[in-house]
Amino acid sequence: MFVTINDPVDVLTAFVQGKVEPLRFRWEGRVIRVKNVTGRWSRREGQSLLNYYAVEGPASDTYELCYDPRGPRWVLMRAWTDAA
Length: 84
Description:
Helix content is about 0%, strand content about 75%.
């Protein structure tokens, strides 16, 4: 099921070879571990550069996370899950 979320989330990240790697995030009281980053892209909004990450979670669920430096904050933009 595809769901547009746009919820602020807490994201644990690491810097790996000079890149930010999301490791896990908290959504609706659950901690979702990132198994794989399947895509990354940026989009300019005014003077800010928003960074997007497509990530795979448990059971091959897919999520789109956005880092917005204006907050700074992380936002869960979309989810493709069986449970959403």
